[in-house]
Amino acid sequence: MLENFLPLLHTKGERNQQMLMETFRERKTQKSEQLQVIKHHDERALRLRSITVDDGFSPAEVELSMMRFSPVWDLIQPKAQGRNSTTCWMTDKQQLQHFCTDDEVSWPDVERLFHQSVFEAMVLKTLDQHGVLLSDPATQERISNVIPWDNPLLYAEQQLHKLRTKGPTFLTEDPGNSQQQFSGNVCPQLDLSDIQSCRRRSLDDWHYIEHHSAAVFPQVLMSASEEYRCLDTFRGSYKNMVYVFCHNPMNCQRQSKEVWDVALHTDVKFRSNIEGLLNTG
């Protein structure tokens, strides 16, 4: 009968255990009966599918914030464009739809061909004669390079300017007609071979498309950066589009070299001091 009136005596270990159980008691989580859809290449959602947000701490948000500090994240960040960028693109799109499409060739096919042509004309990082990867090759070429399939109007203006600066021989069909030369009624024509020379590679065997959401695409780029040494980019003129070309440049022997200009940490001096202290002791 005394047990009903006397207080229960607990040892220190039991009290600590009870305090921990009250502090970190198991919380009942409501399991969702709905199926969870995980998109292709969404490795983060696959790894964290069974982890829930606890006290405002979301592992997915923390991982995403850490990914924003990676160099790959800067490749897909949008840049400010001009006010007339959308207007120019709509005008060019109407002209392309008028001249390049018919009953057999649809506009999506033409648009895919233009995107493929941009990849084929991009200036990529290369190797020097010794097989060493150039850090920033063809800088001037990259700056002055205008891809006709990305910005046809700017490319035409650039080529016409080159024709005019070369002399009247390239401007008129009759170089001896001085009146036509100086009257300003010249009719320069672009050569088709100049446009074809912009094509640096052929990608006819590589044209399949994957569509990724904004949450999945950075993960795809992170995986690509681990497999490919170079991720060269080209920012399109319209629609804030970015072309990313992933490749591993190699020479004829299928080799590639890279110079590391970094200072390596070493603890030789530290170990020497420790050995000196041991010898004196």
Automatic annotation (TrEMBL):
Q: Which domain of life is it from?
A: Eukaryota
GO terms for cellular component: axonemal central apparatus; extracellular region
Q: Name one GO biological process term.
A: epithelial cilium movement involved in extracellular fluid movement
Where is the signal peptide, in residue numbers? none
Return the protein name.
Answer: Sperm associated antigen 17
Naturally occurring in which organism (per UniProt): Iconisemion striatum
